Amino acid sequence: MAARARQVVKAYGTGETRVVALDHIDVDIARGHFTAIMGPSGSGKSTLMHCLAGLDNVSSGQIYLDDTEITGLKDKKLTQLRRDRIGFIFQAFNLLPTLNAIENITLPMDIAGRKPDRAWLDQVVDTVGLAGRLKHRPTELSGGQQQRVAVARALASRPEIIFGDEPTGNLDSRAGAEVLGFLRRSVTELGQTIVMVTHDPVAASYADRVLYLADGRIVDEMYNPTAEQVLDRMKHFDARGRTS
Amino acid sequence: MTVLKTSMRNFFAHKGRMALSAVAVVLSVAFVCGTLVFSDTMTTTFDKLFAATSADVTVKPKNAPEADDDGPKNGKPESLPASAIARVEKAAGVKSVEGGVSSDSVTVADSKNKNMGPTSGGPTLAGNWTKNELRSMEITSGHAPRGPTEVMVDADTADKHDLKLGEELRTITANGDFKAKISGIATFKVTNPGAAVFYYDTKTAQRELIGASGRFTHLSVTAANGVSDAQLKQNVTRTLAGDAAAYKVKTQKESADDDRKSVGSFLDVMKYAMLGFAGIAFLVGIFLIINTFSMLVAQRTREIGLMRAIGSSRKQVNRSVLVEALLLGVVGSVLGVGAGIGLAVGLMKLMSGMGMELSTKDLTIAWTTPVVGLALGIIVTVLAAYLPARRAGKISPMAALRDAGTPADGKAGAVRALFGLVLTGAGAFGLYTAGQADKASEGSLFLGGGVVLTLIGFVVIGPVLASLVVRVISAVLLRGFGPVGRMAERNALRNPRRTGATGAALMIGLALVACLSVVGSSMVASATDELDKSVGADFIVQPAGDSGKPLTPQSVRNLRDAPHTGHVTRVREVPMKITTPAGRTESESLVATDPTYTKDLRREAVSGSVAGAYRGNAMAVGEEFARKHHLKVGDKLTVDFDHGRTVKLKLVAVMSDDTAFDKGAMYTSIATAERYVSAGRMPLDSMLLASADKGQEDAAYKALKAAVAEDPAVQVMNQADFKDDLKDQVGQMLNMVYGLLGLAIIVAILGVVNTLALSVVERTREIGLMRAIGLSRRQLRRMIRMESVVIALFGALLGLGLGMGWGATAQKLLALEGLKVLEIPWPTILTVFVGSAFVGLFAALIPAFRAGRMNVLNAIATE
């Protein structure tokens, strides 16, 4: 397993105002798989991802990255862990405006003081099709190109696991498909582990496995989904949500 | 109404960010108000003192020096005969007349030969104890002096030197010295700002201070009930009729006014100097305010866009920002006025520490002070916010729809670059012209213009220079810090206008520091150089400190008798009126010396030979005087000595004026002067120059020091001492100026803090992103610190460069006045530069800490 969550609870506030975002969740993220997390707004899907990635702390329970328990780690260790073992792709604002594309891509390794693996870097850059635009600043790139740079950055340091938070949320469908295609290939061809939060059934269909969250609990899962299946399942939830 | 409401809400929503700008306003206003309160308090103190010490009407001999003149050069005060008392008593409306003796040509020493006089530059006053003194003093222990061996001292001096009743003091005057035991201590009923006062009985005072019995220096006349001072003055003047021309009669108010004039010019200089520094702090504060409002407007772009979209007019947006500035100005100024009063009290305490007593009882707050403070603070703040407000008004409603990211990075425009270059060029030309000028007065105009133009030019061109200079500094400094350094560099570069303005604020203060330190060290270097070149004397004997008191005859006698000295040259200044053959008369003074003077001070003769001036009835003048009056060697000049006869002296030499010492001085021999000035009226020696016997330098030095061991008012210096003394004096002056500039620099540092703090808020999302992908807190803090250091060093580099340019130009210009050597004080410049880096580190402390504490999730959460 690349990552595991055991009885994870995340709650905000106390007493009357207490809101439980994650309610005793158990999750296993398989190595070399592409996992999508879906659910309606407020279901806790983003919170789950943030906790798994060590961006947010949990109220109780344990989270493991490989064999390392990351719950309870101090900020310094956690930062190192994010830097060396995790990759991130956010919905927007993924790149530092002051750095050009290649500088953004190598930033995590630069921060760590590591030399990027040249051959691998070239391969990644090639894969995401940015070879001609490496010296451009983010403001000189289209939204799709910016997200591809973000994907390249996440891949470049060969992290154990990449977390994506609606990575195609801000893109039109063609650019989104491109980015998702890269993510899919990096899993299939390079054996990368990816966890992605999304509310888009089409995006989810690129995954090997979809987890459904509602009210802070995992309510269902699906392997090798198609967009139609995902959509159906979601309609089902919505209907159930309305009746209950 | 809604405009006001939104302004208020915005103001209070950003109180943290406003706080730093408010501090700048507070500091500047406080400096202005503090200066006004402080100088008003000083004026009050002196007014009260002079009102308390002056009699209803005072009668003085006609020749008595005016209050702002130096003391008598011959060491003896002018006096009037005791018979005048009886004459004045006859005047109508006189209640009583007292003969008073007062002299400031004394030195009082304790048994260890320590000077009991004030160290703050205040006078040592000696006199007789009369009823008139009771207006301002009361005896608080012991009794008034009753015989030749008793002296009474004022309580402040007694406290300062821990003097007790019965202790023996030695009073040194031009008439010799005498010992007396302390019989009493008198305390001032008003604040005594710093004089040391000694009282003797009348006979002793007459004999020792005037050198003649039956004479007084002044008469204190008290009016009978119901007689006004003016009426009394008229009556007294009438009584003295016929002889009235020999006397000066003054009412209390006239005496007090005259006395005030003597300190007034000093107080004014101090006041305007301090106000000047307050002005510089204001100037720096303006940058801080402009920057803060620019950043607030930039961060609120979306909000303002929304306001515009839903129908706010440009004017309303514009006004809402100005109203915020108004609030800031009001809050800052009100606090500033309060802080100013505190500052004045602090300054008074500081002055007390330095020996100038001031009492909070006299604290004077004129109604104009808060008015000036408030008006200045509010107007300056609103004016400074005008540009950002106008920019806010220009924000299009479309801004509401755009992505909220960091605000568009301000680029330094080409128009700005050109404009700045033109200004800087014009300023540089002004400086160049000043450097080439052959008349100091002409050049100083160009210098002033050049300084102002280059300063404005640098401020305008600052953003353009920022991109360049920051790259250079980073290349040198940040290379070793890898990606963190690179990001710090890029951050400093991303908004050149902001970096430029922040750096410019620091630049102003540091430019002045650099300029003054260049001028100061050039002064020391030039004087040292000149000393080596033209002063042949091994020793210089001067009045200690800046007392300006002439050397007493007995000290001069002892010094001339000192062993191991080759020769001792006496130097005295003899006032006179000189009339040229063409009939033009000017008031000048002759430097009368012994013939050995030519060995002690080498000054070239342009024509003739100066040695001749030391033969009988001959003199030498400076070349400028000679040129002005078309004089040549051989001409006869008519010299009318003050207190002496009129004679014709032959001009035997015209001396070069290309010299730092004695520029323009006219020479004659002491023998010649003594022949024509009446005995007892001859000025005392103002200085002695001495040489040692060959190889006996140390012995001679010791012997000279020993010769005046008992006269603490005399200072014996060899050339090394003299140079050190000069360096100390310049150093002290510079330190004072640096202290005053410190305020402007503090305001500039606040500016750096503010810029960084706002940048950090602006970059919340970026910081979150960097933290998410693995930038550690420590690296983040380091990044912000380095950005701060780069901005500070940018300001320092510009400021030091500019200031050294100004300083060098000033030196070139002043070379005409003897400032021949340019010396750049590299240690000071380097210290300031390195210090600026620390200032940058310091300014980044809080912003970096806050950035480190930022929640990663807040930063990256999608809205």
Please provide a written account of the structure.
The complex is a heterodimer of chains A (244) and B (863). With 244 residues, chain A is α/β, with parallel strands linked by helices. Helices cover 39% and strands 25% of the residues of chain A. Chain A has eight helices and ten strands. Chain A has a six-stranded mixed sheet, sandwiched between helices. A four-stranded antiparallel sheet of chain A has the order 2-1-4-5, covered by helices on one side. In chain A, helix 3 (101-112) packs parallel to helix 5 (143-156) and helix 5 (143-156) packs parallel to helix 6 (173-190). Among the domains of chain B are: 55-253, no CATH class; 550-712, no CATH class. Chain B contains 25 helices and 24 strands. In chain B, strands 15, 16, 17, 18, 19, 20, 21, 22, 23 and 24 form a ten-stranded mixed sheet that branches. In chain B, strands 4, 5, 6, 7, 8, 9, 10 and 11 form an eight-stranded mixed sheet that branches. In chain B, strands 3-13-1-14 form a four-stranded antiparallel sheet. In chain B, a hairpin with a 2-residue loop joins strand 9 (168-173) and strand 10. In chain B, helix 2 runs antiparallel to helix 7 (252-299) and helix 21 crosses helix 23 (777-814). Chain B starts with a helix and ends with a helix. Chain A binds chain B through residues 50, 55-56, 75-76, 79-80, 82-84, 87-88, 90-99, 103, 107-108, 110-113, 153, 165-166, 169, and chain B through 405-406, 409, 482-484, 486-487, 490-491, 493-494, 765-766, 769-777, 779, 856-857, 860, 862.
